[in-house]
Amino acid sequence: MQRIRKGDDVMVVTGKDKGRRGTVMHVLPNGKLLVQNVNMIKKHQRGNPQTGAQGGIIEREAAIDASNVMLFNPATGKGDRIGYRTLDDGRKVRFFKSNNEVVDA
């Protein structure tokens, strides 16, 4: 089970985007994440007339390491550490360490 999954609301804890929040759009297999509107880069892209792609300078998200983000806890309003717990019905779920609230409903 992964600590951070697609669709999670995360907060950046270190780097140039420290303090920013965003939603995880994609989890890469090398331990990196694509987070919406975080770690934006400018990419010089060549146009392709066959596909109709416009050339120029586009702005897009670059990958950020999963160790640089924490899951956002709406109860505390801050990033929080994650633990794992097995419920009575046998499901393994993530929970916030600060208030023991279950993340996966």
From TrEMBL:
SUPFAM superfamilies reported in the protein's UniProt record: Translation proteins SH3-like domain
An example Gene Ontology molecular-function term: structural constituent of ribosome
Entry keyword set: Ribonucleoprotein, Ribosomal protein, RNA-binding, rRNA-binding
Domain named KOW: residues: 3-30
Database matches in InterPro entries: KOW, Rib_uL2_dom2, Ribosomal_uL24, Ribosomal_uL24_C, Ribosomal_uL24_CS, Ribosomal_uL24_KOW, Translation_prot_SH3-like_sf
UniProt subunit comment: Part of the 50S ribosomal subunit.
Entries under NCBIfam families matching the protein: rplX_bact
Annotated function: One of two assembly initiator proteins, it binds directly to the 5'-end of the 23S rRNA, where it nucleates assembly of the 50S subunit.
Stated name of the protein: Large ribosomal subunit protein uL24
